[in-house]
Design brief:
3 helices, elongated, 36 strands, Methylamine Dehydrogenase, Chain H, 543 residues
Length: 543
């Protein structure tokens, strides 16, 4: 008698379920760009999708409750001069999103709570460096306001968005960078390139630590760091068969696992859940989502199941775990873009009978707070991302959630930080203040003893007040000048009207004189005719 041993896993029965069409987002003009991007980014507040737009690039931002058919004239985020290629929400501020475009500029935007009421064209900051299109934007997982961008100029740039300054510039790639990913604490950076190689860098000094051949095929490859340090890649072999592999950072050239999946042209995007160690493979043009579990025992990458849909997908976005519904044991949620303008919502669920909070399914997950500032990170300090328990900090409301963190808004700072949160983490000492209508945490002042609010000192506030006063004076001056110009224009229009009236009167008088002259001529002619008739009659009588 033979026995078949079934691997034990709490995720073995995970299944996907598509929401009804009225609970999805319809009538969206998804971008038709050929760039290999997901075209979609999701966080617990908003859904962002890159769309077709005349006269430049744009993307649409929708609150999650705005389901159904989207109006054709819905406001967009449309400040780019070329098509938008990639977008990414800031993990530490649900209202901030970065976008890269063919116009070579990276823009960072602030989205108001509740969504857009009019088209947004003014970003918080423009990051200008790249000489060719920017196809990749990526936020640091634990450092505040650290953003990575990569373009077709083969350059990788790491920015401090709070100051708009470049922290690091990597120019050692010989060709286009396809993908990039930080490790769990952001101390390592993995990239894949068009030259078929995978590289690991120190993101603080740009030092190349290791490189190896990734996949033998010439099509686009992707690589991501897993939570415990391994690297997962997707790509193609020489026969255009799609592959995935698992590698150790210290042995990149010797994959632990290399598996041929199928034969297709679509690039595969690996979407990773660090809480469950599940990887979802979504291919561009595919109608399926395959999911795998990564474990320490062979074969290390275990196939679980496949979610099948009738329509091919053009792009996809994955909701962070703090946006999932824990009451239904939802462990992942995907927003899948179809070619017919539908954004389909797919819920991945573990079947459980109990309605209680399932602690084994929901370990501590990534929080909204940053663990370290950009300045400390670039100086060499590492910190794991801040985590929290969904049971403690998420309130369940009608199958959804309400985050306990306060609303965040942008604040203008002369120096350190454009974004609102100064230095946040698990061991912060902060006071709560209100600036510009937003509630946010503020660091207590430096050793000099001066209190700060979001990094703004009393002197800075006085300077800002003086600047506002000067601007008001300039505005009043311009308003007076505008009123004077308007009065001059009105006077000129009145003079023009008077001249036109006089000309009309003169023309009328001239016409009257002409008519009178014609009448007089007619009377004269009639009189002459009468005289001639009388003379003729007299002559006839004499005869």
């Amino acid at each position: 008698m033979s026995f078949r041993v079934v691997r034990s896993s709490k995720f073995r029965h995970v299944y996907g379920q598509a929401l009804k069409r009225e609970q999805c987002y319809d009538n969206i003009r998804v971008s038709k760009s050929s760039w290999d991007s997901t075209f979609c980014a999701v966080n617990p507040k908003f859904l962002a999708i890159i769309v077709e737009s005349a006269g430049g690039g744009a993307f649409i931002v929708l609150p999650h409750n705005k389901v159904g058919r989207i109006a054709a004239d819905h406001p967009l985020v449309g400040g780019h001069k070329g098509p938008v290629l990639d977008i990414a929400w800031c993990p530490h501020n649900d209202n901030v999103i970065a976008s890269g475009s063919e116009d070579c500029v990276v823009k960072v935007w602030q989205i108001p709570d509740g969504g857009l009421s009019r088209t947004l064209t003014e970003p918080v900051v423009d990051l200008v460096f790249h000489q060719r299109r920017v196809g990749l934007v990526l936020w640091h997982p634990s450092a505040l306001n650290v953003l990575l961008t990569a373009g077709s100029d083969n350059q990788v740039v790491i920015w401090n968005v709070g100051t708009g300054e470049i922290l690091l510039h990597i120019d050692s790639h010989p060709d286009i960078v396809y993908s990039a990913c930080f490790n769990w604490d952001g101390s390592k950076l993995v990239t894949t390139c068009k030259d078929k190689k995978i590289r690991i860098y120190n993101p603080r000094n740009g030092e190349l630590e290791s490189e190896a051949l990734c996949h033998e095929g010439s099509k686009a490859t992707r690589a991501i760091f897993l939570r415990h340090g391994l690297i997962f890649t997707t790509g193609f072999n020489r026969s255009s068969e799609r592959q995935y592999s698992l590698r150790a950072p210290d042995a990149l050239s010797e994959p632990i696992v290399m598996v041929e999946l199928d034969t297709s042209n679509g690039v595969m995007f690996p979407l990773y859940d660090p809480d469950t160690n599940l990887i979802y493979l979504c291919g561009k043009g595919d109608s399926v989502i395959r999911y795998f579990e990564v474990t320490p025992e062979p074969p290390f990458v275990h196939y679980i199941n496949t979610f099948q849909t009738p329509d091919p997908q053009r792009g996809i976005g994955m909701m962070p775990k703090r946006g999932c519904d824990v009451t239904t044991c939802e462990i992942a949620k995907f927003y899948r873009l179809n070619n017919n303008g539908l954004c389909q919502v797919i819920s991945m669920t573990v079947p459980r009978k109990s309605d209680l909070f399932q602690e084994d399914l929901y370990p501590d997950t990534l929080a909204e707070d940053a663990a370290i500032t950009a300045e400390k990170w670039i100086m060499g300090e590492d910190a794991d991302p801040v985590t929290f328990s969904l049971k403690d900090r998420v309130s369940i409301v009608q199958g959804g959630y309400v985050s306990n963190s306060g609303n965040k808004s942008l604040s203008v700072s002369k120096k350190a930080n454009i974004l609102n949160k100064a230095a946040v983490g698990t061991s912060k000492s902060a006071s709560t203040a209100t600036l510009g209508g937003g509630n946010h945490a503020a660091d207590v002042g430096s050793s000099s003893g001066s209190a700060t609010v979001s990094g703004i000192t009393e002197k800075d506030l006085r300077d800002i007040t003086d600047e506002i006063r000067k601007l008001k004076a300039i505005i009043v001056k311009h308003e007076n000048r505008i009123r004077a110009l308007e009065a001059a224009v009105r006077a000129q229009e009145d003079d023009t009207d008077a001249v036109a009236t006089r000309n009309a009167n003169n023309n009328a008088n001239s016409n009257n004189d002409t008519k009178a002259s014609d009448s007089n001529k007619k009377d004269t002619n009639d009189s002459s005719a009468n005289d001639n008739g009388t003379s003729a009659t007299a002559a006839s009588d004499e005869a």
